[in-house]
Write a structure and sequence with these properties.
The complex is a heterodimer of chains A (445) and B (267). With 445 residues, chain A is mainly α. Chain A is built from 20 helices and no strands. Chain B has helices spanning 4-32, 123-126, 186-191, 196-199, 205-229, 233-249, and strands at residues 35-39, 47-49, 58-63, 69-78, 86-93, 99-106, 113-121, 129-136, 148-153, 163-165, 168-169, 175-176, 178-184, 262-265. Chain B starts with a helix and ends with a strand. In chain B, 35% of the residues are buried. Classes of the chains: A mainly alpha (445), B alpha+beta (267). The interface between A and B is large, with 68 and 63 residues.
Amino acid sequence: MTFRLPSSPLLAVITLAIGIVVLWIALTPFSWDNDEQGHYWTARDIYEVGHLPPANEFPTVMLPRAPKQAANQFRYHALPPTYYLIVAALFNFQPEPTAGFMPGALIGRGFSAFLYVLAVVAIYFMGRLLVSGDEDVAALLAVGFALIPQVASTGASITADALVLTSVSLLGWASVHAFRRDWDWPATACVGLASALILMSRPSALPVLLVPVVMFAGCSRRDMRKLLIKTIAIVGLALVPNLWWMIRNVVIFGEPLGATAHVGYMDVQGVYAATSEFAMYKGNAGLTGLLDLLSSTDWLLRFHTRLWFTGRYDSLSLFGVILAATLATNTLIAILFAVGGLRSPLDIQRPGITMLPAALLTCLLATAGLAAVTSLEYGTFVVGRFSTPVLGLFLTATLGLFTTTRWTTLGRVLVTSFGAAMMVGHIVFWAGYVLPDLVGEVLPH
Amino acid sequence: MIDRDHLLRLGRWISMLALLGVCISSLFNWTKVPWFIQLDKPVTGSFSAGPINQFFSVGQTLTTAANELSRVDLKIAYGGERDSVFAHVEVKSFPKGRSLRSGSVELVPRKAWYSFSFPRITVDESGGQVLVEVRSVPGRSLSDRDLVSVFYEHRDPYAGGRMYVRGMPARADWDLGFRMYKAVGLREALGSIKNWHLLGIEAPWVIGFGLASFFFGLCLWLRRCMNGQNPQVWTVVFVVLMLAAVALYVPEAIANPAISTVHVGLQ
């Protein structure tokens, strides 16, 4: 009898992703990154009382004082509540502290891990659609995505950013799927539902809604009546599952998403002013505007580091240059697609797909711009993780599409280089940053 | 008959083996590099003491009982305009004042943390406490215009010692910003990562499962590549080895535990 290993690339991708996220969960301490404390306590508050905080508890419930647990640890109660409701429900499966540790922390991380694997699978299927069924290229793209350290870190933390990761990836897949299916009804419904997930996740994911808009606009030569009905269907599907909490937010904060209420309240309470980066950006009275922030401070360097890796480090040194080169190459390809310098057979069959990289690049710049503006206006910590899901989608979609042009060989080399660079980047990150950081913790002696 | 294809294949194999050798040797070296485990809580240092000159020095006593000290990090700022400015750092036994390790550091504008590593100081040598002192280098004096200062903290963040200014004790609740370490091997360093409590287990089988899952997935994919379904495998292997070689051979630039720190050896 001979034992035969299965050879499915999808199985390899899923197995790899599970391995990566299990290692991250097992090795990184609770609250190591991604503001895990804040997200955890938001879900714990809901779990303890069994419902969302009532209107009369706002705004103090967002930054509770003693004797509430973990006083001065701010919560995300103003933001979309879906992720926190699910995590709070999951806490019922781990209600007691495990080995003296916080109850629910492991099950919460497990949920994020599930979302991470789902995101990787979505990238695989999107890649397969883009490269016309080449499973190996799709697998490499998915593995490269899974190995971006910030993506893996998000998947191993209790954070609503894990839901952003999944919703952004699913919307990428759904948009390409709808494009390939010429926006038939099931595919259109998928885009609507994926858009609903985007709204459910975090306001930082909203710019990615530009992707289906651009793709849909690409097919505007057909029957306008049908297009209008489908537009209404997409918007309806996106809004209906979210209306209840949007109305609740309007009643409590006067705005549907709650982002301004959250940032404004934290600002008033001095949460941002207590961080060292407040003094660098908001507190730097000499800064005249966004361009000045980017050109005369190290904001961009920190953002770049945190975009790929985590919020714990300020510089990537030489490896950062390799990552910046990866980003620059993809940006160039996206621009070439947008101006017609590169053509794909897919675009000839159905116009519009070549605008996908440019649309994603615009989303990436929008999320980065939002981070810069909040640093300048409120002095918030430089946050890269809001842009990471879009970065991953941008890189995988651009490289996948590039392999379908006449530069197929170069495209395949770039795809393999991307996978390899992320593999090495992951190893270097663990060897050079994470392990010394974890080992550097105080030991009993 | 040797044709072009044979030569290409030979060249590819030779370059692959050479790179593999480079990677294996650098990996081997990397595992022998001392790792540092931090002792006691670090002190950040928000206020500056200085400027350091031939009449003004600062120091901090550190308790090392039961530990072998191998590295101390200090937060030093240099705001002057001279090209080459040096500060002198000395580790002495305390209170005897016997010099144990010392050396000079060339200061870098705006750099904050300097990591001073040295052959380990045993408790027998130090007597359980050391004084780490920063002062002007004899013969290469610092002036006030060099704007060299060392950072310290209020509210007594370190109970095991106190700050010294001009060789005299400073206020009892002041401490220099510092981090101190002992050197260990890779195995001990990895063993010190204790996160098992999160998983409610005391055995590392979860790590084993994660690693097994990762390598199983990798094997599935490589096997597919090797079977000829994907000719990109050579590109992947080549790029991985190239980047690994770069990463492992530029440890100061990339795989550095304290990437923004200037490393200085004391003897």
